[in-house]
Amino acid sequence: MKARTRNWAAVVSIASTTTALLAGCGQTQSGNTANGSAAIAPKQNTVSTNVVAPTHLVNYSNASGSIVWAESFTTGPVAKQLVAAFEKKYPKIKVTMQVQPSSTDTNRADLTATISGGSSTPDVYMGDVIWPAQFAHAQLAAPLSDYLPKSFWNRFSNGLVQGATYNGKVYAAPLFADTAFLYYRKDLLQKYHLPVPTTWEQVKSEAATIVKKGGAKYGFVWQGADYEGLTCDFDEYLADAGGSVLTNGKASLNTPAANKALSFMRSLITSGVTPKTVDTFQEPQSENVFTQGQAVFLRNWSYAWSDSQNPTSSKVVGKVGVTALPTFAGHGSSGYSTVGGWDLYLNPHTKDLAAALQFIDWMTSPQAQEILAANSEMPTIKAVANSPTLKKYSPVFALLPKVKFVSRPSQTPQYPSVSKAIYDNVNEALAGSVSVSTALKNANSQINSAQSGSGSGGL
Ligand code: GLC
Q1: pTM, two decimal places
Q2: Ligand 1: lining residues by beta carbon, under 6 Å
Q3: Domain 65-178+340-398 part of CATH 3.40.190.10
Q4: What is the 229 CA–ligand 1 centroid distance (Å)?
Q5: According to the model, what pLDDT value does residue 74 have?
Q6: What does UniProt give as the signal peptide span (predicted)?
Q7: Preceding peptide of 388 cis, ω within 30°
Q8: What is the pLDDT of residue 455?
Q9: Does the pLDDT at position 160 exceed 80?
Q10: Domain ranges of the chain
């Protein structure tokens, strides 16, 4: 398979003065997006999609039946709330929930095995925004645009739809967007008279000060395990340092920017600001350390706000502040967040197509998207994302205009191997088993092999 050098429109604002949710995949750099093509901020009414006409339009308005929905929420009661509201509105359709692993990679491996084995369930599944190319290519997802009317896609911004498109067809309906933020202990910053940091250097020094003075056990926790989440964290430091994973379609990690990014990550560990065990932390472990009151700072996605305020599981309710991710000193006033998020995919072997489509339609309706927003998950439909009442649900929504975004190069079916080349090598450098420069050199050549199809293949 030849390397993809195409630039993808990576970003789209859901146009509003207050809200700029981005989505899509690719390598771009313009406006406030990293790595390649132009940031698009269309006015709500001018958004249009280039979705092809459906070939097998399904009328699901009177659907009945029973479907299984594989859900991957790592947080709270939101999945149950959604299903209860759906079944109330559509009593002729029963939805059984199937809880998936919280790691996106394990989740993907599980769904790949199940669906490629021909199973008709789950009928509908949540899948990462980085999966459309791979899942479409491997026929693990049905082209939703074959069944849904073209008008269906107008509820989303154009970029979100593009991010879910492969070879002209749309394979997933955007469910919620994920943006990363810096969570901090506002009580501790106050106590030690320290400002909310805007640079990574400040995060490190403030964390060190507070730990030294006995304010917290750990300074800063994040995702350093050998998995997709580490690619997200690394890409943010890399974009902050002025670099990108690919330049003109080729790996560009043999660069001073990549060296700066990874050296900084490693220094967080060697300086004692971040615990050594961070090289095994995914989102739940890092979040747990923070909500148990053991860390000053946490890098995590938008839902971590809700979790930090949940009195049954968090010891830091009322003590948490949230801000845009910082950047390196001299690189602006805030940093990059990886574009994350989850979509709804349709199993090509489903036996209940009409009920599945009704479910997907409702999950991207204002009612469902308000439920998501109330759980600090970022809505994907313009009607809710642009709503002036959004900010009442979570402080993260008001921060969006400050955030810069970097997309992962996931518009290729080889993306899992590209990402693995990053997270395997970065993880080894974090553990101290290879030097920063060796890790980057290895990642660079493995990314190029993965892109040319000569790597270890999809996962
Ligand atoms: C979040 C993001 C997803 C990303 C994952 C990495 O779930 O939404 O896009 O791949 O984290 O752990």
Answers
A1: 0.91
A2: 104, 128-130, 178, 228-229, 232, 283, 301, 340-342
A3: yes
A4: 6
A5: 73
A6: 1-23
A7: no
A8: 53
A9: yes
A10: 65-178+340-398, 180-337+414-452
